[in-house]
Every structure is written in C-alpha cells, then in structure tokens.
Amino acid sequence: MHSSPAVANGIVYIGSGDGRIYALNAASGNVRWTYETGDVVWSSPTVADGIVYIGSIDHRVYALDAATEASA
C-alpha cells in the first residue's frame, strides 16, 4: 500500500493503483463516486473545507468537491 485514506464526514477518500480516486461510505463501504486521473494515485488525500486534495503520478494535484467529485 502506498497511501493512507482520509476520512471526513462519514466518507473515506483513497487513491488507487488503477488511476482513480474513490469516495466510499464509511459505514457501508458503498462507492459514492470515483474520479479518473491520468495515472496511478499513490499519495494520501487530505480534505479541507469540503475539497479533497490529492496528487497523482501524472504530476498533477487534484482538487475535487468532496460531495460530488466535480473539479473544484
């Protein structure tokens, strides 16, 4: 494992080797949303003011709305 998840407001955020960022319901484990990046995501996310920040091997840092996955 290359990264650790972040948990905020009952949602678990994690990057993956498949190039996606996942938001999972902490209680049920159900996927709330996914976001596809340009490469694997080995960094750990952080959540601040409703925005998920996470870097990817594609040399970009993503800022996503924590509730909807839309780019912030």
User: Which CATH first-tier class would you pick?
Assistant: Mainly Beta
**Oligomer class:** single chain
| Low-pLDDT regions | none
Alpha-beta classification: mainly beta
Query: Could you please say which CATH topology applies here?
Result: Thrombin, subunit H
* Number of contiguous helices: 0
Task: Quickly count the domains.
Answer: 1
Distance between the termini: 27 Å
SSE order, as H and E? EEEEEEE
Rg, alpha carbons: 11 Å
What composes the largest sheet? 4 strands, antiparallel
What is the arithmetic mean of pLDDT?
93
- Counting DSSP E segments of at least 2 residues, the number of strands comes to 7
Biggest sheet: strand arrangement: 1-2-3-4
Using the alpha-carbon principal axes, give the shape: globular
CATH architecture: Beta Barrel
DSSP helix fraction: under 10%
Strand content: over 45%
Can you give me a brief rundown of this structure?
With 72 residues, the protein is mostly beta strands. The chain has strands spanning 6-8, 11-15, 20-25, 31-36, 46-48, 51-55, 61-65.
